[in-house]
């Protein structure tokens, strides 16, 4: 990375976010094993009985909403149409995207020991710059890059276009991951990117199809990620039971239909999806009820991990600021903020327990929900795609509720059923994109990803996969998806 430290990436190229062209440089920066928090952390495990980690998820989709047809942030549209729906909240949303840049310095100056993890979609980061909200990005820059505040903040990587992984074309998963990493480096620098080791899947949506999960974990590991955040009810033990030790880090096991296996560390997001859990700092109060647990030969503090929307709803807009500050003040009054029950960042926690002697091999294992039923029906000497597919079909006949669409923060929404009018064009555009470019890349022409046509086509491809075009139902949002598809299809057909 030393050769890249003084090589600033352009953030915007030809009016587009910088999401391609420096793939080799990104991979050279992120694939390092250097400790991130261990050299600076002020927490000593022997003084701690339990910890908690909170993450704030921030996202605004990109939509084709101006009369000129320009792609803009939905936040920009909200500001321009304040009397539609809840668009009057646009100003509050913008402040929510910025306010950690105020809260962290304030709390540190008061002698507190705060921690927060941040998950911002690529759409949102680009949209803020498009809108000229440099003030928001400057606030984030300070707590990301200033060594005074950096030990208190951890960024989590994500899919650039806020795509739910299980229904994203497999060949595009790594494109989203790399696009976010490159865009993040362009905004905050290479050194900041080198510190991003945790991953937050959009909608907490974890694939449970063996091949999709395997490719997802493979892409994460190839892109330098050490761990990801996983929803408690989206995983099971290897024997198909609910998790027993949800306050311990786990090994998420990925086995594909060929029998290949790999694993990645998972921190378990506990309980449900209610943003109130973060908004009222429930993870801190839950951690206060816990005591140390044995992992292998070491006693470690358990961790309560939780993520919530950082801006959505009255609790996050209005109650969270005071609850957030009150929790850190309370910790200062009960152990000085460094003992007893304390906040941590995910990577910080994993580095601390590793330094204390924990081995990843001792972490309890888990797998996506429903996979136990699959592997029960596939003989260990018969790993092949046909055997796995047959097993899936057998289970569906016995259990009509079984599916391999993955599991997310909510079980009452399907990201697949009823959205053929979005999914079919999405897969078609992805296929067109790869038909145009894959052979050129295989021939070794890496310069293709620096070209404006490639970047534009990639942008349309990953924008179309944004979850909002399904989450918000049929109508305006599926119309947005159709518009983006038509633009991408026209561009790719004109080459």
UniProtKB/TrEMBL annotation:
Protein name stated in the entry: Glycosyl hydrolase family 57
Keywords associated with the record: Hydrolase
UniProt KW Hydrolase keyword: yes
Membrane-spanning residues: none
Ranges in a coiled coil: none
Gene3D superfamilies (UniProt xref): 3.20.110.20
Gene Ontology molecular function: hydrolase activity
PANTHER family according to UniProt: ALPHA-AMYLASE-RELATED-RELATED, SLR1535 PROTEIN
Organism: Anabaena azotica FACHB-119
Keyword Hydrolase: yes
């Amino acid at each position: 990375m030393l050769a890249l430290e003084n090589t600033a990436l352009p953030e915007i190229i030809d009016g587009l976010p910088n999401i391609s062209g420096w793939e080799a440089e990104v991979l050279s920066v992120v694939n390092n094993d250097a400790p991130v928090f261990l050299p600076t952390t002020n927490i000593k495990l022997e003084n701690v009985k339990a910890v908690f980690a909170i993450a704030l998820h921030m996202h605004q989709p990109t939509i084709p909403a101006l009369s000129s047809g320009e792609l803009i942030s939905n936040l920009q549209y909200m500001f321009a149409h304040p009397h539609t729906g809840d668009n009057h909240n646009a100003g509050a949303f913008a402040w929510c995207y910025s306010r950690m840049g105020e809260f962290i310095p304030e709390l540190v100056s008061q002698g507190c020991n705060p921690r927060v993890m941040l998950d911002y979609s690529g759409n949102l980061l680009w949209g803020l710059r498009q809108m000229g909200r440099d003030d928001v990005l400057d606030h984030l820059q300070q707590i990301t890059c200033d060594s005074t505040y950096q030990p208190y903040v951890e960024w989590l990587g994500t899919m650039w276009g806020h795509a739910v992984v299980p229904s994203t074309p497999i060949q595009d998963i790594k494109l989203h991951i790399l696009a976010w990493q490159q865009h993040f480096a362009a905004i905050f620098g290479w050194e900041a990117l080198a510190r991003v080791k945790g991953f937050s899947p959009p909608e907490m949506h974890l694939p449970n199809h063996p091949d999709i999960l395997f490719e997802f974990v493979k892409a994460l590991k190839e892109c330098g990620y050490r761990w990801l955040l996983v929803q408690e009810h989206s995983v099971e033990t290897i024997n198909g039971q609910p998790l027993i030790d949800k306050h311990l880090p786990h090994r998420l096991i990925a086995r594909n239909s060929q029998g290949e296996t790999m694993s990645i560390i998972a921190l378990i997001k506990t309980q449900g999806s209610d943003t109130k859990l973060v908004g009222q700092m429930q993870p801190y109060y839950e951690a206060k009820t816990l005591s140390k647990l044995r992992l292998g030969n070491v006693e470690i503090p358990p961790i309560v991990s939780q993520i919530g929307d950082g801006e959505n709803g009255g609790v996050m807009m209005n109650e969270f600021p005071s609850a957030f500050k009150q929790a850190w003040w309370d910790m200062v009054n009960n152990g000085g903020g460094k003992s007893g029950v304390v906040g941590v960042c995910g990577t910080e926690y994993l580095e601390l327990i590793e330094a204390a002697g924990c081995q990843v091999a001792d972490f309890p294992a888990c797998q996506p929900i429903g996979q136990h039923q699959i592997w029960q029906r596939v003989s260990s000497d018969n790993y092949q795609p046909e055997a796995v597919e047959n097993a899936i079909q057998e289970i569906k006949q016995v259990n009509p509720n079984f599916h391999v669409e993955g599991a997310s923060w909510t079980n009452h929404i399907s990201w697949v059923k009823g959205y053929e009018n979005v999914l079919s064009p999405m897969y078609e555009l992805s296929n067109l994109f790869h038909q145009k470019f894959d052979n050129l890349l295989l021939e070794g022409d890496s310069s293709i990803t620096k070209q404006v046509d490639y970047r534009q086509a990639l942008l349309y491809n990953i924008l179309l996969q944004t979850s909002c075009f399904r989450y918000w139902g049929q109508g305006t949002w599926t119309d947005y998806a159709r518009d983006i598809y038509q633009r991408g299809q026209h561009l790719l057909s004109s080459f």
